[in-house]
Write a structure and sequence with these properties.
about 190 residues, alpha/beta, Rossmann fold, 4-stranded parallel sheet, about 45% helix, about 20% strand
Length: about 190
């Protein structure tokens, strides 16, 4: 029997909008099958990261993170190169990797896609030893995420996102990069 761990970020936008109990119930209903044991955790911050890091030692075949891009990046870094399949339940604001690989934007559609998914490989790169997928913001996205959390409380999710984008753009400076591919500077 396959074992799946689903880790939901308690602070993800969709969970804040719909409520953790509703999302947990939807996940249980969609993913619990006769040949698949599912455990669903709702965590935030360091507890969520620890749940991702401890999953390989607990014998899970699949880990699904219900979160945004930051949590997905952590899961990619932890699980890259392992035999554990990573699933993404796009519950954050942007969900770049989830959309890049074609996951539906709505919760029922994304759950159905995960239930019927066939694992595929994705490219993972590193910057200064830190794994990333899709795009590396070199600090930009962290600045934006911090500002977004502050603005979300006072301006709502969408307006807060645009205000955070503006703030991060204003604070970002020029960056000089040395890029090395296969041991050769390009």
């Amino acid at each position: 029997m396959a074992r799946t761990l689903v880790i939901l970020n308690a602070q993800a936008g969709t969970i804040l909008d719909l409520g953790a109990d509703k999302v947990r119930a939807d996940v249980d209903a969609a993913l619990t099958l006769p040949d698949n044991e599912v455990e669903v955790l709702v965590r935030e911050g360091p507890e969520m990261v620890e749940a991702i890091r401890s999953a390989p030692a607990q014998g899970y075949d699949r880990v699904i993170v219900g979160a945004g891009d930051g949590t997905v990046s952590t899961a990619v870094a932890v699980l890259a190169g392992s035999d554990i399949a990573l699933g993404i339940l796009p519950l954050g604001t942007m969900n770049m990797l989830a959309y890049d690989i074609g996951l539906p934007r709505d919760l029922p559609g994304a759950l159905a896609a995960l239930r019927d998914a066939v694992p595929m490989r994705i490219d993972v790169a590193t910057v200064n030893g830190r794994a990333f997928h899709g795009v590396s913001g070199i600090g930009f996205f962290s600045q934006m995420a911090l500002a977004r959390e502050a603005y979300r409380q006072t301006h709502g999710r969408i307006v807060g996102w645009f205000l955070a984008l503006g703030r991060a753009l204003m604070r970002s400076g020029r960056v000089r990069l040395d890029i090395e591919v296969d041991g050769r500077r390009v």
